[in-house]
């Protein structure tokens, strides 16, 4: 199981005692109060077995699809500090056999629907079990092994990085991806073990997105998805831009002020590009500290090979992400841009942008 803990990728070994038994369950279900009683007993056994050991196993439960009433009853019945984290599963793209998977992934209104689950779980924990944290215990986009020629291709990264950003926004501490190997949704190809595009998306997230989550406000098109975090283990802010539009290019101008939010203004650009009239939409970044214009920003731009969204090869700044002759993961060097220049995010692409000298109040000095 591969997990992203806010900004860290890690492997977690765990024992599963029943799967997806909460709420109506999948095939079977267990009453919340009975589940709580068994969990209390498990906690007691762990304390006995690890009595003289400082580092004890975590208890994660229930490992199923979120049901508000069931989760509330479980927290109330199990009591303080019985569970360390509430785990829930997400397969919001539906079955892997769905012929509309690609249109769902590129539909911002569809992607937004799962935010209700994240928000409700966060509120449930705050009201009924503030000692616990929220984990996505399993998520692969589309269930039943994912979608063939979709879940293992570049287009799936639009769903994946967007959901990582959304999960962090709603205080999710750990996000476990189904799966590392196996099915169409594996991060590694089942036959060759070569990384699929989502592997590299997760790798960039891990290297660049820190634990501090910043608020982003935009009145631009919903097809421009944006998330911002404190940069991992160094000063600055990392901005993630996801362009779901197949013809609109977005332009981002940097404007420092005294806030930590993002504002967007939209203006049409009637210049023709590739026989298409594209809109250049302006997004203004608002920060807390004047930018030193002598420094550069880092850009990590992900696109599909040959502009084919269902390619199994991703490009980073135009260079194919492929294993080296020794089988090592390739480097991820950024393109450096002058901070004074605007940021452009072309259609159907993903870009991580690091502003190394941008100091947001909620980000620690490094």
UniProtKB/TrEMBL annotation:
GO terms for molecular function: beta-glucuronidase activity. Gene3D superfamilies: Glycosidases. Belongs to the glycosyl hydrolase 79 family. One of its GO terms (cellular component) is plant-type cell wall. This is Heparanase-like protein 1.
